[in-house]
Amino acid sequence: MSRVCELSGIHRQIGHKVCHSNKKSKREFRPNLVQVTIRSDTLAQGFRLRVSAAALRTVDHRGGLDAYLLKASEDELSLRARAIRRALKKKLAEIPAEAAA
Q1: Which of 69, 13, 8, 15 is nearest to 34 (CA)?
Q2: What is the CA radius of gyration of the chain?
Q3: Domains, the chain, ordered by start
Q4: 94: exposed, middle or buried (C-beta count within 10 Å: 0-12, 13-18, 19+)?
């Protein structure tokens, strides 16, 4: 299982561990990933995603999974998140047609 956030796309970063004598050795900085079930209001379904804690706060700040996915760029989303986004856009396109009829 890769260490990549499915919503924001952040992944591990490489840097240096610097000791007191200023010697540098390689280390990696891993994102804080958590397995969560996020509910989509429009699709009325829960989705189990591996998301970073920072992205989870952003989802909450933007008003839920639906708002986050509609505002996010296609490049940073995982394949599963892109599929959810396409289903969401399809469902939202159907709703005004039903309301007009």
Answers
A1: 8
A2: 18
A3: 13-100 (2.30.170.40)
A4: exposed
Plot region of 27 (φ>0 → left; ψ -120 to 50 → alpha; else → beta): beta
Tokens of 86: 């396409």
Per-residue pLDDT of the chain (101 residues; tens, 9 = 90+): 689 999 999 999 999 999 999 999 999 999 999 999 999 999 999 999 999 999 999 999 999 999 999 999 999 999 999 999 999 999 999 887 666 55
Token pair listed for 34: 């958590």
- Please name which of 91, 92, 69 lies closest in space to residue 82, comparing C-alpha atoms: 69
Dihedral, 13, 18, 19, 25 alpha carbons, nearest 10: 70
Structure tokens given for 85 = 């986004």
Residue type (1 letter), 33: L
